[in-house]
Amino acid sequence: MLRTPDDTETLADRAAEPRGQDAPGRLLVQRGLFFGPSALVPEDLYSKVECGAARRTRRTVELSPATRVTTNTYFGRFHATYWQRWTAIPEVEASATVTGTGRVRLYASDTNKVWRIVDAQDVENADGWVVRLVGKIDRFVDGGGMWLEFTTERGELTVTDVRWSVAAPRTPAPTVVGICTFNRVEDCLNTMQALADDPEALTTVEHVQVVDQGTDPLESRTRFAEVSAALGGKLRYVRQPNLGGAGGFTRTIFDATRGPAEEHRDVLLMDDDVLLEPEILVRLTAFAACTTHPTIVGGQMLNLLHPAYLHIAAEYADIETLRAGLPIPGALKEANLLGTDKQGRPIVQERRVDTAYNGWWACLIPAEIVRRIGYPLPMFFQWDDVEYGYRARAHGIPTVALPGAAVWHADFGWKDWDEWHRYFNMRNALITAALHTPFTGHRTVKELATLLGHYLVAMHYGLAATLIKAVEDFLEGPKSMNDGSVAAAAEIRKIRSAYPETVTHAMAELPEHTRDFRDTEVVRDRGTPGMPRATWAKRVAYQLAGIGRDSAFVPAGDAHWWHVSLFKRAIVTDMSEMGFRVRERDAAKTKDLAARGLKALKRLYKEGPAVAQRYREAAGELMSRGNWARLYGLDD
């Protein structure tokens, strides 16, 4: 049975308080939202109706009798373990405006997902009362969070305007949102519109700068004028030649750090093609304002195609083997946030995991950090965020990937690896290795040689050529970035156009590439070989002898080198599942690419350490404000 609190009059008096505002000296760190920014995302990521019936909208939940609603969800939790580790904030207050009869509880969890009740308040016949619950940010060093639960028995309860706030340690720094776009007009306009549609979140930033590098400019659309009007004086629109993601993002950093230090602005970088949760502005700027030391604060990535899945909670790079996006031990990866564990408890990042860097799909970089470590490198794109994160670490600056602050971004697993941007992935990884490892060359050359061997037996000739070009251009030294890598972007597209298997065909074109349907029989992979080196050698021998099945259709998930190499001709599903590619054995290409690749790798092993030293010597100039002013054609 519900109990009526002794301080009912005090609660009633609070109804006169301004709603949607915070007391002086308090900082809003997150809002309690019950529904996403779009019906395209699951509302259970925000709040969950555990029993009974409730109506959820963006800011309000209406509970019928005998109902329980929890915010122990990805967006609904206050991730206290990150606040205890990276800030000195002693407690958090969760407030809500309630009408009706019911109970509001503040829960907390520990590293093992075991819950406890921190604070609670019963209300009866409330009419716009403001309930405030306080939780100490203690006992969360290794993990745990807080959330709210709303329950009714015989009555109804409406909850709105849930706000989590802390005593502000300092005034949040003025922050600029920087969006870089290239010919993704509708995606970018959608992102801008999402910002305009949430005026409260927009108040946390000074302005939004959109850097348009496309040949199909935003301003050519009627809708651009409408969205610009909605953003009003908050929008700054910049047009410039295409310098890739690095050039687009750095332009906002460049403009935000112009003049004396007291006029500098923090920058929240954001991709143009995300499904935006505007709440990320509130959470990243607030957390950055509370950290005890300058910190890069990153938002996490949820998969756009599978919106209940978290891409990765925290990641690192094995730089010498040129691999990024590796999960920190204990971090969730491709996790179903609506699922449960073996004990039936929600899947959340309960234990704190510390990331090495954060992707720039949404990432806040304080101006003080830019002053200390310089600007990003002109890499065009790929690995610019990784390099910057590791550079910050080398200067004693951490990065935090903050759970509950996220955007939806195109699933990486549904993008084909055999694309022109793979050149930048490999070349820029080599540059990062040159700057942040001893670069003896042994592990790196071994990894590239393995990749090259796999590409050749799998008839990935264009990808092999891409790898070779990346190595050759790295060996050219820092001058390859003199133009912001614009020439390299054009050259790699030209090189790849000579290899037919790099082209994706629509399924309607399949009859043009087959003699009859029997050539498109699906052949599944039988499993990973137990001795991969011996298997690779056997595949090479078979190919030299001309042995293999004539043709087969290989699903994307089975297109491993050891399987595709069994066929003389393989029709392979593109990872996007939108078409197919045709790979055919070509002995002449195999021999030519093997010879060129061997030559490039020998050079890398021999010359790599000296080339790496040249990159280290040139790094100061490459990341300087003067270099970027030159690339932008500005008189700075």
TrEMBL record:
Chain intervals with Basic and acidic residues compositional bias: 1-20
UniProt domain Galactofuranosyltransferase GlfT2 N-terminal: residue ranges: 54-165
Biological or metabolic pathway of the protein: Cell wall biogenesis; cell wall polysaccharide biosynthesis
UniProtKB keywords: Glycosyltransferase, Transferase
Start and end residues of each Galactofuranosyltransferase-2 C-terminal domain: 453-632
Region (Disordered): 1-22
Xref: Gene3D superfamilies: 3.90.550.60
GO MF annotation terms: glycosyltransferase activity
Pfam family, one: GlfT2_domain3
PANTHER family: GALACTOFURANOSYLTRANSFERASE GLFT2, RHAMNOSYLTRANSFERASE WBBL
Family: Belongs to the glycosyltransferase 2 family.
Name listed for the protein in its UniProt record: Galactofuranosylgalactofuranosylrhamnosyl-N-acetylglucosaminyl-diphospho-decaprenol beta-1,5/1,6-galactofuranosyltransferase
